[in-house]
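Many introductory courses stop at the sequence. We go one step further.
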Amino acid sequence: MQDFRKLKVWQKSHRLAIDLELAIRSGPRWSFPGLRRQTLRAAGSIADTLAEGCGKQSPRELARYADMASGSASELINQLLRARDLGQLSHRLYDDFERRIEEIRRMLWSLAVAIRRKYPE
């Protein structure tokens, strides 16, 4: 077991989810509440999944959870793209969040690779 709060990728994911929630709350009201809910759920899921993986007994399980968190990050980019194209999110905000999510995805990939190298099957 590992303290998820010490992982830099968790810290960035947590901050991303908070910043996205604040941006959505302070911006114009979304006309598509289902998209809003799903977007916020995917944003929180990245850090949540990492935290859950850190609670598992095996480091290889953490690698699997890092892969799942990366999937949530991809889902979030897709939802933000849809929100941007529907006029719910500015291009500037979309670009900022996409850049941050891509950084998190690279970190997740690196974490999973490092774990699998250290703990081969």
